[in-house]
Amino acid sequence: MSGDGEQARRLRSVPSGAAGRPDADELLHRVARGDEAAFAALYDAVAGRVLGLARRVVRDPALAEEVTQEVLVEVWRTAGRFEPRRGSASAWILTMTHRRAVDRVRAEQAHTDRMQRAAARDSHVSYDEVQEEVAARLEREQVRRCLGRLTPVQREAVTLAYYGGHTYREVAEHLATPLPTVKTRMRDGLIRMRDCLGVSLEAGA
Amino acid sequence: MSGDVHTLSGAYALGAVDDVERAAFERHLAECEPCRVEVAELRETATRLADDTDLPVPSPGLRERTLAQVARTPQLRNPPTTGSVKPERRRWRGWAAAAAAVVVAASGASAVTWSVSSDRLGQEQAAGEQARQVSEVLAAADARVYNQPLRAGGAATVVVSRERDQGVVLLRDLPQPEAGRTYQLWLLRDAVPRSVGLLNTGATGTTMVIGPVSAAATFGVSSEPSGGSPAPTRIVGTVELG
């Protein structure tokens, strides 16, 4: 079953977007045992995505850096509580990032203000290295392609919630749509995304 | 899974619930195995939305501050747990994330037609000639992506636009070449190889624009003496383009 082991290793993690780095799951496992070098490597593997997501949600570069630092310190602090069977390390870290970023915007900003800004997006892309950019671009294009397959109302609900940091109640209010409808749009939208992206979690031996 | 609570799974995975609802939903999850699987998948899916953000380069100061804070921050011990905490082996079926990064929605060697909206790409500024060519190949209406692990280790992704007669190759995590050897890239048609590139000495990965691809049916990587060979002598992996 050596081929199977290789397959599992290869398929397991959310892509880190960088060549030659150990995957985030493996690094997080070492971080949980207090390995600071592994933390530094984990930082290098995920900081760009954490910062990118934080910026997209909080819309303020300085605040996004603060969120990034807080989240990564929290990753260090709570690494031992990460449960691999509940998802990948990257998903764990990015979920934490999203939560923290959303807490910041919910605390600081008025709704309408955010609704407007969530609609716009940065167009500037800084190229680090072509190689990383290509990989990241392919991932982005796939996400966009799959987002494009949602119905317009599903897409609206999903993006207002995720990028805008709104609760489904706020989204329902903003769209003047009943709560159950909005909940359903979010769930159906994510299910359609899941199937388009081919995400599947199989727990088993 | 009771209907009403369950419909919250999407909002929960998107982080679009308040603290009270989150706590209630997590209590529900603790009792509902099918819900946990669904939520885990939806959460992974929501996480992928983070891929559609620009990737800023974090400032060196941020790295220093974070590492310094970590050095003086004690870690939480594991909470007492009930039952087994043995990490289960998990498989991501159909999530073809090569060790490197590239995700193509299919299993194994695969091809997907990418429909890339040109206006989006137009918003993004490519720096440098190679980046521009890469963008053009990826943006081509007929661009197809082939993604495959290599026999010797590592993975190759080849994006081919027959219309543009060009391709983009991404190689990642190849084994370190032996001393005096380097990797060479080939396109094969009717078993006739044509060299399309040579990696730098010691390199274990690259991104390269190749062409003309014309009717090439196979992309190959071989290990050759430094300077390359007229024909491949030791193939380490191939990707079928068709």
What is the gist of this entry?
Chain A is an all-alpha fold.
The end-to-end span of chain A amounts to 13 Å
Overall geometric form of chain B:
elongated
Report the biggest beta sheet of chain A as strand number plus sense, adding barrel if it closes. Answer: none
CATH superfamily of the largest domain in chain A: RNA polymerase sigma factor, region 2, helix turn helix motif
Order of helices and strands of chain A: HHHHHHHHHHE
What name is given to the CATH topology of the largest domain in chain A?
A: Rna Polymerase Sigma Factor, Chain: A
Estimate the global geometry of chain A from the Cα principal axes. globular
Instruction: Give the low-pLDDT segments of chain B.
Output: 80-127
Give your account of this protein's structure.
The complex is a heterodimer of chains A (205) and B (242). Chain A has 205 residues and is mainly α. Chain A folds into 2 domains: 94 residues, RNA polymerase sigma factor, region 2, helix turn helix motif (Rna Polymerase Sigma Factor, Chain: A); 72 residues, Orthogonal Bundle (Arc Repressor Mutant, subunit A), CATH 1.10.10.10. Chain A has 10 helices and 1 strand; from the N terminus they run H-H-H-H-H-H-H-H-H-H-E. In chain A, helix 2 packs across helix 3, helix 4 crosses helix 5 and helix 8 crosses helix 10. The longest helix of chain A has 23 residues. About 20% of the residues of chain B have low confidence. Chain B contains 7 helices and 12 strands. A 5-stranded antiparallel sheet of chain B has the order 4-5-6-7-10, with helices on one face. Chain B has a 4-stranded antiparallel sheet with strand order 9-8-11-12, with no helix packed on it. Chain B starts with a helix and ends with a strand. At the A-B interface, helix 1, helix 3, helix 4, helix 5 and helix 7 of A face helix 2, helix 4, helix 5, strand 1 and strand 2 of B. Chain B: This is Regulator of SigK. Chain B: It holds the Pfam family RskA_C. Chain B: One of its GO terms (cellular component) is plasma membrane. Chain B: One of its GO terms (molecular function) is sigma factor antagonist activity.
